Structure formats: C-alpha cells, structure tokens
Amino acid sequence: MSTQPYVELTYPFAEPPAHDSYIEVAPGIRWLRFPLPFALNHINLYLLDDGDGWVLVDTGIKSEISYELWRKHFETTLEGRPITRVIGTHFHPDHVGCAEWLVKHWNAEFLTSRTEWLTATMLQSETAINATAFWGEYYRAAGLDDETLRAVATRGENYAERVGQIPRPFTRLADGDQIEIGGRIWHIIIGTGHSPELITLYSAEDRLFISSDQVLPGISPNISVQAPEPYADPLTEFLDSCAKLTALDPETYVLPMHGRPFYRLHERLEELVRHHGERLALTIEACRTPITIVELLPIMFKRKLDFQQTQFAIGEALAHTNHLVVLGDLERIVEPGQPLRFQSSIG
Ligand SMILES: [Zn+2]
Known about the structure:
By secondary structure, this protein is an alpha/beta fold. It is built from 11 helices and 14 strands. Bound molecules: zinc ion (ZN).
C-alpha cells in the first residue's frame, strides 16, 4: 500500500474510536477499531444494529489482544444483545482472524463469498514447509538475494496462525445479492483486484458504502500478484472494479476498513486509477533496459520498506509488470537460473 496525498477527502470524524469504545458513524452503525501488529497498525470493524442482535462486518486478527477487546465489547458495546451474523469481507487475516472464535461464541451464521472462503480454506491447510519452498521460488524469480530468501524461509507462512480455521459451514454471498439488516437493504457488490471476490455492502437508500479494502482513503489498496498465480493480472480486475463503483451515488458515505470514513468516493476512485496510471508509466520507463522486480522496487516505492512491506511491494510491482505484458507494452524475459526480467517492447 502507498501514501498518496492528492485529493482532499472529507472526513466527518477527526479521530477514530478508542479500541475499547465505538463511534456511531451512521444510524445503526457502530465503528470499532482494533489494533494490528503491522506497519498498517489498525483495522475498522462495523457492527450493524439488527434489532434483537448485531451483524458484524469483519472481525480483527486472531490474537489475545483482539479476544480481550472483544470480551470488553461484549460487555459494553453490544448492550446485552448477541452477534447473530458475521460477514467476512475477504480472506485476509485482519478481516477474518477472529471469525471462528466469534461464530462459536455466539453460535452465529458466517457469511462470505465462495472464493474468499475457498482461498482461506486452502491457505490454512498449507504446511509451512510446503509454502516456504513454493514462495521461495516466487521470490527468487523476483530477484531477491540469498540472504533475504533465507529470512523468508525461517519466517514461514503464518496464515493459519493468524486466522485459525475459517468458519464452516458458511453462507455464500454473491454479486447482486441483497440482505436486510435492521430494516436497511444492503446490496452486495463484489470487488476484485485486492482479493479474489471481496464483499462490499451498499445501501442505495441511505447512500452508505462499506467498502472493506476495495476503496481506502490515504493508502491505495494492495494489488498483488501471488505465488500460486504468477501470470495473474489483478490490476485489470481492480481498475474494472473502480469503473463499476462509479455507478454509486457521488454523495455516498464510505466506511472503509482502514483509515477513517469519508466522502468524495468518485474523486477517490479517479485518484486510485490515476495513481496506477503513474506507476505504469514509471514501470515502462524503468524497463527500457531489462530489469528485475527487486530492482524496480526503489523506483516504484520511494521510501524505506520493512520486510512485510517488501513482500507487498514485490507482489504489487509484479501486478504492474504483468498488466503491461498483457497490454503488449512489456516483454517478460525468462532465462534458466536467472531471475525474471522485464523490458519495454516500445523503442
Ligand atoms: Zn485486505
């Protein structure tokens, strides 16, 4: 994810809620904020009033800190009413890490899209040794040096650690579905590019949009090529989703999972598209002579990256090079024993 300060968005709240408190962002919608152990240090969760109970959208990462906070919210924020449904917007650990624990505690229904559920199920059953070998190849192809590759190897894959089990059974949400919560109709709009089949919820009547990580203020959603699908073009998918979301009302109030709720959705969408356009132009320029993904990083990301950010950045750089290969602007150079390199096809 990267910082990009062009358009002034309107934020109704200057400060987020404290971790053990909430803010009523719109009638019947409580905004919670949980901590995360990453550079991106928080996630927003939304509790939707459903009369006798609550519907929770996203859960926080699996950790003792999250459980501790949830126990406090059970006593206070829920006002004695149960969580009856938990919606997981996508498979990333910060979004569904506490899902199993919450679903069991409340005997709640779990809803997500089929592909997000399958992806989580696949990742949590992958052994660390298998995953490390697999991802090691991917990082080697990107041009990571041996020392960093060894660090990747000792780190292992930690999806299972951060998520536990994704709840089963689940109820499928699909694009175009409508669900009623507390008398309000929410339209399910599937987003793509950041994750395979990400759930967003839109109330046309109240012009409310729970955007998850599809549209974020201040940072651009991570659009990454992952090891299992090295030739994927998630940037096309993301840009298609941005175009689709311009159909939403311009006055929509956006409730994202990172940053603060904001207005000016259309301007933000334009800005995200422009941001990727600039990155694509930079990439073509940098590829006049053949270049590896790791060599591209300081050109695309002009700040120091920690280890996790480097992982994101490699995936993101590949998303841009793969998109340009699909457009015919770059060529992929594959040589035995060498990292992958990219070169502009235009003089
Ligand atoms: Zn995410």
